[in-house]
Amino acid sequence: MSSKPLDYENLNENVKKCQYAVRGELYLRASQLQKEGKKIIFTNVGNPHALGQKPLTFPRQVIALCQAPFLLDDPNVGLLFPADAIARAKHYLSLNSGGLGAYSDSRGIPGVRKEIADFIERRDGYPSDPELIFLTDGASKGIMQILHTIIRGPNDGVLVPVPQYPLYSATISLYGGSLVPYYLEEAADWGLDINDLRQSIGQAQQNGITVRAMVIINPGNPTGQCLSEANVKQILQFCYQENLVLLGDEVYQQNIYQDEHPFISARKVLMDMDPPISKELQLVSFHTVSKGYWGECGQRGGYFEMTNIPPKSVEEIYKVASISLSPNVPAQIFLGLMANPPKPGDISYDQFVRESKGILESLRRRAHIMTGGFNSCRNVLCNFTEGAMYSFPQIQLPRGAIDAAKKLGKAPDVFYCLKLLEATGISTVPGSGFGQKEGVFHLRTTILPAEEDMPSIMASFKKFNDDFMKQYE
Asked: What architecture is the 6-50+352-470 domain classified under in CATH?
C-alpha cells in the first residue's frame, strides 16, 4: 500500500522540528506517574488555577451573567449578583450583537479594544489607538500571528533571548525561519549586554541570515528578571540602528515581587524618546489575562498593540486574523475587565482589591521562599525572581551524574529532573528546553504551589538534591 499524506515520513518537516519542552518528556512522564497513583506537583507550566489559585470574584460574576443572560431577567438577580456586575454584564452584551455566542469583529469587539486602549494610555501616559489593537486567543496566538507575518523563509532570523520561552523556538521552526540567540548573563541577574546583541547579529549575517525582529520577554520567562528603563532604551536604539521590529512580550507586567526594578513598558520608553526613533521604530507589544493576579489561563484571552506599523501592513495582518473569523468572545470580556476593573466607589471595588492584593502579596512571599530554598541547597545557585512566575536555578551537576546521563542517552539536566520527579513528584522543566550555555545546567519551576505547601516542597527538593549529590559526587 502506498504511503499516505499523514504518515510520519510525509509530514511537514517544520512540524517535526518543533520542540516544546514545557509539555515534553518530563510532563509526559509526570502524567504517566499520576495515572499510576503518584501525587504529582505540576510546576512545569504557569497555570495558577491548576495549583489552587482562586478566580477573582467580580470578573467571574460578569462572565456568568454574560454566559446566561436570562439571569438578568430574573427578579432575584440582585440577590445573587452585585449591581456593578449586573451593569457591566449588560454593557458587554450590548457591545456584540448576539452576545457571547456570536462572532465579533476579527480584531475583537471595538468597545473592548477601546477599554484596552484607555488602559494603555493610563499606564504609559500616551494615547493608544483601538484600531491598532488586536484581541487574540491568548498572547501566544498573537505572537504566532506576528512571527508568521515577519518570517518569509529560512534566511529570515529573529533575535530571541536565551534562556527563552520555547513558544519562540517552536514557532520560528514551524514557520521555517531561523532563531538567532542572544545570551542573558546569569551572573548579572540575567541582564542583557548590547555588545552580545551585536555579536549575535554579526554572526547571523555571516551565515547569510537577515535578522528582521528582536524579542524581549519582560519580566523574563524563565529567568524572572525585570529590565531597567535604561536597558529597554538601549534595546530600542539597537533595534532602530539595525532596522528591526521589536516584539515586546510583556505578559507578566503585573507580576512584580520587588520595588527596585518596576515594570516599564517598551512602548512608554519609546514614546519618551525623541523623533525620529519614536515615530519610526516598529513595535508590537503583547499582554494576556493568563498571568498577573488573574491567572485565567484556560480563558485564552490576549491582545497585541502595534506602534509605527504602516496601514497597509495592518490591513494584511487583519486579513490573516479574518481567516479565523473571531477571537473567542468570553475571553474578550475578560480582557475588558482586566483593562477596566472596578473603580473606587464601586460596590465590588473593596473585594476586588482585597483578592488581587492577597494573590500578589502571596506570590511575593513564595518568590522569596523558593529562591531562599534553592540557595540553601548544595550545588544550587538561584537569582531572585524579580517578576513573572518562575525560578530558574542553576544545578552544578557532578561528573558522575553527567556520565550517568550520557550512558542513558539523556541530557544531564533532563536526567536530574527525571530523578527529581520520580523521587518527589515535583514536575519541572529542564533548562535545556529553554536554551543555556554549554556545560551549564538549570531547571525551571513555577512559584505557584500553594504558599502553605511551599516549605514542605522545598524541604522535599533539598532532601532529594542532597542525596543526589552524595550519590554522584
From this structure: Alpha-Beta Complex (3.90)
Which distant-in-sequence residues (6+ apart) come within 8 Å of 28 by Cβ? none
Q: Which amino acid appears at position 303 of this protein?
A: Y
- Written as nine digits, the cell of 254 is 503585573
DSSP label at residue 252: T
Instruction: Please state the domain extents for the chain.
Output: 6-50+352-470, 93-337
pTM above 0.85, yes or no: yes
Distance set, CA 76 to CA 66, 81, 91 (Å): 16, 9, 19
Cell reading at 8: 510520519
Nearest to 133 by CA among 285, 300, 251, 304: 304
User: Cα(76)–Cα(277) distance, rounded to whole angstroms?
Assistant: 57
Q: How many other C-beta atoms are found inside a 10 Å radius of the C-beta of residue 403? A: 11
What span, in angstroms and rounded, lies between the C-alpha atoms of 128 and 130? 6
The strand pairing partners of 302, in sequence order, are 136, 288
**Residue 161 β-bridge partners:** 182
Shortest CA distance to 389 belongs to which of 150, 247, 145, 222? 222
The strand ranges marked E within 80-228 are 133-137, 156-162, 178-183, 210-217
Single-letter code of the amino acid located at 302: G
CATH of domain 93-337: 3.40.640.10
Q: Which three cell numbers stand for residue 367?
A: 518568590
For residue range 9-64, what is the model confidence (pLDDT) as tens digits?
888 888 878 776 666 788 888 899 899 999 999 888 888 998 889 999 999 999 99
Of all helices (H) and strands (E), which one includes residue 116? helix 110-124
Q: CA-to-CA distance for 16 and 211, rounded, in angstroms?
A: 24
Q: Which residues contact 259 (CB under 8 A, 6 or more apart)?
A: none
